[in-house]
Amino acid sequence: MNILQDRTNKDSEKYLQNLVINNKEIQKYIIDNLGFKYQGDEKFTKGKPYINRILPDIKISKNNTILALVECKSSNINVTDYVRGIGQLYQYEYFYENNIIENKTDIYSKDFQTVYFYPSDVLKKNDFNIVKFKYPQTTKILQINLNNFTLRDFSPEQSVKFSNTGEKLIAICPYYLRDNRLFELYIILKYLDKKFKNYTKSISRIDFEKNYLREFKTPNNNNWRNAFISLSGLGFISNKNLLTEVGKKFSQLSFPEFCANIAFDFYKPYIVEIFSILEKSPSISLQEIITQIRKNNDQKDILFLTESSTRYLSSWLNMFRDDLGFLTFKPRSNERVINYNPLKLSKQEFVKYIEKFNKAKNYIDKLEVI
Fold first, then answer.
1. Is residue 149 very low, low, confident or very high in pLDDT (cuts 50, 70, 90)?
2. Measured between alpha carbons, how far is 7 from 13 in angstroms, rounded to an integer?
3. 20 to 30 Å CA-CA from 21: which of 78, 146, 275, 318?
């Protein structure tokens, strides 16, 4: 592979390095996730050799203050490469602790961090569990979605969700959803944008649910907890439960646009897995769907899909009916009608079908009176 191909191949480290150094939107997301306020004068530069000729992939600085040193990895890495990256991060932390700099004008920020930056697909493309490693104290794991270049902080909350993957339980998608409709996620985003846009303090999820969200009387009205976890996993809210820069962007979409983007760019592997079965047998039982999914995946369970008996699967089917609208069925019934095939549509076409078939209007309309 030549240099040009290396920089344009999404599976290469050079491609990621190029994105970070040249894409202002990604830089904005990174600064936001590091807990700083983006000003536009931050510098993202290729690292120069430190002691022992150790070369950080990227240095993030502002007015000669080093905010972070970044280690990039592609999605197609093996466990040795991944561990080698962690080793690099420990060296970057050592540089900070001992005030080792690449030039005399640099100083380290008191809030300096090391960053492990790689595609979110690492969670599903490899046979090792990223949660089962020790990382430096200063390290923040930032994962990029290469479908739309959004970022998320792979937080401790997300680590717990992925901690059990292994030989018998695999991930086909790096994003979480359970016991929620997409319109519930959308309601939180819109509410945060309307009422807490300039808020800087942490918001209690419990208080937010009791004081505001339960007014919407949604299907999961007494359990908004999973909606917050899902939004955090998508990179839409911070550890303060406020909108991230990515969340702000998605909060400005119409509901059909929001659903189409979530389905295409985040949850599509689940849609493909389930709909490929329903397309052939729309009224198959939930347990039969689970059995077929396991058969299609070498008898392995799928994270957030075949666990907890049929509970996860029910959540997906409810979302397909109420948010995306490509299924119609009555509660606790296996008699299903396919309204359209979501796998044969462009994202723009998907928006039009969602607008026609979704069942969220009564809930979304309540946003107009808050």
1. very high
2. 8
3. 78
